[in-house]
Amino acid sequence: MDRMRWVAGGTVRIVDLNELGAKVLAPSVLGERDASLQLEFTLPTGINGEVMQISVAARIKAIKTIERSGDNSPAHAHGLQFHAVGERERLLLQNFALLRLNEVRADGA
Q: How far apart are CA 68 and CA 70, in angstroms?
């Protein structure tokens, strides 16, 4: 899980995710600070490789332009804060965080 669909259009890359929000990279600015977005993406369940679709409302809390380096195009990092998260979505996000913690412990890192 490293890509999600921004409902208003386009695909962005998730670089950090927890139950409170996410940091995403996009080729262009997704909106103004404090603008609301609806995000849709899938999360692994940890059971037989299954994934679950999730949709959450988020507010843009920070925007930072990342300059072009080498072959990489310029990008825009966005700090997003989730809001009005439903019980199902909250549980899926918590489960994802726990799965990631277990991966780190299993790797010894």
A: 7
